[in-house]
Amino acid sequence: MQQQWCDPLVDADITYEAVVEEGGPAEVLLRTAKDTAADVIVVGRRDHGPLSGTLGGVSQRVLAYAPCAALLVPPTTTCREWL
Asked: For the CA atoms of 16, 23, 71, 35, what is the dihedral angle to 10 degrees?
């Protein structure tokens, strides 16, 4: 599965580090970004509720507390479309 997700990054010659951790998604993303001095956090966005554009809890926490830049990828976008 990791190869499928990371192939577009390799094809675009983008340096990345894949990390697998246990815990809440937002907390793990934020802690890992800080511990690795990440340049950017890329997280998928899902619309919630009757109002289009309402972010989920993980997206909100990452945007609010990220120690670096954060990129939210819309739900209908694939990695290859935005690389």
From this structure: -50
Give per-residue pLDDT as tens, 52-78. Answer: 556 678 888 999 999 999 998 877 656
Instruction: Report how far residue 29's alpha carbon sits from residue 27's, in angstroms, rounded to the nearest whole number.
Output: 6
- What is the distance, to the nearest Å, from the Cα of residue 11 to the centroid of all Cα atoms in its chain? 18
pLDDT digits (tens, 9 = 90+) for 41-55: 988 877 655 555 566
Side chain identity, residue 61: R
* Three-class SS state of 42: strand
Across 1-83, the runs of DSSP E, i.e. the strands, are 40-44, 69-73
CB 48 within 8 A of CB 56: yes
Which residues on neighbouring strands pair with residue 79, listed in sequence order? none
**d(C-alpha 75, C-alpha 72), whole Å:** 9
